[in-house]
Amino acid sequence: MKKLVYLIFAGTFIVSAVNAQEKNAPKPENKKAPVITFEETTHDYGTIEKGSDGTCEFVFTNTGKEPLVLSNVRSSCGCTVPSWPKEPLKKKKSSVIKVKYNTNRIGIISKTITVYSNAKNSPVRLKIVGKVVDKKTPKKNTGMPPFKPKEKTNTVPRNDNQ
Predict the structure, then answer these.
(1) How many domains does the chain have?
(2) 77 domain residue, yes or no
(3) For a FRET experiment, which of 17, 23, 72, 148 has its CA 20 to 30 Å from that of 8?
């Protein structure tokens, strides 16, 4: 009886392992599927001032043979807002994904925008990088020379009674 239970258990395990391998096997490539191709996948703002225009554009082309449909474009942070075309893009046509970064946040910019579509190379990750600095306030001219502190000397008072 123990052998029979063991054989049934082993047989079930082998069948499920083979079935799992078939599900994970690579699917045949659809040669007609759309392909999304970007001119650039990283936009570098460089150093920009707080409150300046944080808009950039990512130009892409459908290099496949079927219409391309962007189903969703998500950013890694609420400070980055993407907008994208909702209508299908025919083969060999181009369009733009606009990204608006909130430049009221001072510091390093390193955000990811993920583009989901029906393309065979989906999802595609785009990046924006740069640095936001505070606006430089001009110094007021008071007519006086700038303050210079006196030089400190590192001398220790001498005690001759030792």
Answers:
(1) 1
(2) yes
(3) 23
pLDDT tens per residue, range 2-57: 665 555 655 555 555 545 443 443 344 567 789 999 999 999 999 999 989 999 99
In this structure, are residues 71 and 91 in contact, taking their beta carbons and an 8 Å threshold? Answer: no
Take residue 114 and report the two structure tokens written for it: 């993920």
For residue 125, being part of any structural domain is answered with yes
Asked whether residue 79 is domain-assigned, the answer is yes
Nearest to 50 by CA among 89, 114, 103: 103
Cβ proximity of 129 and 99 under 8 Å: no
User: What is the secondary structure of 68-122 as a DSSP string?
Assistant: B-EEEEEESSTTEEEE---S-B-TT-EEEEEEEE-TTS-EEEEEEEEEEESSTT-
For 54-101, the pLDDT digits (tens) are 999 999 999 988 999 999 999 998 889 999 999 999 989 999 999 999
**Other Cβ atoms within 10 Å of 79 Cβ, number:** 15
List the domain range (segments joined by +) for residue 128.
36-133
CATH number reported for the structural domain that contains residue 97 in this entry = 2.60.40.10
